[in-house]
Amino acid sequence: MLQSPGRWKPLYFKIFLILSGAQFRMKPKTISTQIPVPSRLQGTDGVRREIKLAKDSECKGQTPIQVFLEKGWITEEFMELYAYCYVKNQPRNKSTSSNNKTIVIGWDPRDPSGVFTEAVVRGVRKAGGKALVLGVVPTPLVPLFMLHEGADGGIMVTASHNPKDQNGIKLFLPFHGVKPLPADDAELTQNLLKQNFVAIKKASIKGGKTDCRQKALELFRHFSLLPENSWIESRATLKNLTLVVDPACGSLAGIAAQIFREAGVGKVYEVNKSGAVNLRSGVADLEGCPRITADMILKPGSRFHRHKAVVKLFEIGRANQESAKSGKKRIAAAIFDADGDRFFRLEYDPFQDTLWVLSGDETAILQARHLVYHNKHSGSLYINTVESDLNASTSAKSMGLSPLLTAVGDKWILLKIRLALLEQKLVTAKLAKKKSTQLKNKIKPLQKNGVTSVNALLDLDALISEAPDTTKNEVLTVGSEETGHNITTGYLTLPNKKKMQVYSGNGLKSALNTFAATEQLALTLPPEKYIRSIRQPFPPGFKSTLYTYYIRQDLFCRDSQVWAKVKRLLLQTAKQNGYSGKTRNFPDDPDMLYISLAEGKVGVFVRNSGTENKISVNLRGRKSDASKLKKIGLEIHKLLFSLLKDPDNALYKMELYALSQIASQPVTDEKLEVKNQYRLRLIDEMKKQNLIQSSPEGNRLTPLGKWYILH
Predict the structure, then answer these.
(1) How far apart are CA 63 and CA 474, in angstroms?
(2) Residue 467 has what pLDDT?
(3) Scanning 163, 262, 270, 380, which has the fewest C-beta atoms within 10 Å of its C-beta?
(4) CATH code, 161
């Protein structure tokens, strides 16, 4: 630790400049700082931002769009405007007029006042839509209920795994419940930018409102417990499982635990049923941590000391250690995020007194093995995103599946599924050879170059209308995001008794499927071998993600100055470490910089988050590549700190001020002098950036943290 106060003068001077409004280092003169109006306001999945009330002094005199663009905040007025434009943007069905579109609306519990959710309902009704209100429900229930009722659209008010001070909107379209694609987002954005909110604010309510909560929850319960969806063969399947359920104080609170009980789980304990969403709970806390040892919960300041699900699982595991060793019990946890579309599994290992963390990669492979074992999916797709461990695809291929890599976001997995279904439908359709060839020629470019609008899918679907509704083989085994979105085929019975296939990121379905798969596996293996087989269902490669928060995301896009500098340094450092690099383009995410190394066995990619104000350097490869990839990653990480940090961002200013306190001596969470409402979030995000680390005495600077504040 540097002791001389004189060494820290540059830091204090920088903080003074920042707090006084001056600007320095992180804003190079060569890069334009004017905030452009983007072609689309949406990120990976809808819009998410920090929330502010429109009456706040910092928002007065500005339109909802101005506050969103210039301040980076979502107000309730923005929510109302967004919902209004979404309804107006929806195409009319033949059976509906402009004034009786039905829109399903649900939300997670992060808005107890109802200010933001009521604004969404109001926006829908002002646009003439009929609001089918579900209240607090998991995200997958919105498209499910929309399809069941034949509604014209769906809105989920949530910021998913983001902190409690943020909110947002996810949208669903009536075409098989898919999410809007970039061109759809751009069209909605242009509609938003043209609106006169003053006129909308004064507009009268036109559409109706119906409380559909109980009907929707019963549908979700029935859908979840249906054997073809849960994969649970009998009430005895899960009787030896003891389960801790962590809904992250979110949408699945009370719901998931009850469904697990009805599914036959031996014992169910629920934690984090109420409180601040995603705080010391949920999947986001587990990301990047493959194993949790006892020392990680013992002392104040240790990573999981106050994570109730982790502490509870250790407590139950130790109390039942002998039963677990003998195979009489299996002890695990189901961890969700606030809106219930993501799932991580924790498995208690009685032989090592430790917890194994199974992310979306591990759970997807366990599900895939189960399906392949039952001879249902030979040769079908295993789709995962670039965030996944590269060895997951290798494992899927060894099972006889067809791996397919796509951009980040479950919407792209859903798109690939829909294209595959259309292609299969074409194969089974009795069409003239000429028409069949024409349609194949339409599909191939979409598969290669990407689809930007759902209308392209609608057009293709209409052209193949002669094809039968059923298909001979499953096109999908599993679609997976490492972050916990897993998608497998679901079956929904409609009011007319017809059955349709549905696809969505569904945390509860993923959990039921994973536990059903492994409990059947436990019947054939001795306990210790069972633990080994599920804790690492495929040989893991090297995987690391380095984050930079509070940035100017608009500066990093294809062929921008920052993009070019990052690419140049990445290729240079890769070469210095013995790799030859090749740029790989993903049409679904053109602004992602992806460099493939070692003939595809190693990948490094840099991309803006579509859900938070951050950018990441993602390192994926073999275990043997770890040390080299860490060197490459560190250099790119430092460059992003230098080029993209936003001096105008309030959290950036607090970050430097917090680091100045920690620089001289360790500081505990409680004694860090920043605004109370931001303290825990700031500490968490400084740790995610590897700027600080916990110690028994308090938070300390890491070597990167020391570099950061002095450069």
Answers:
(1) 49
(2) 54
(3) 262
(4) 3.40.120.10
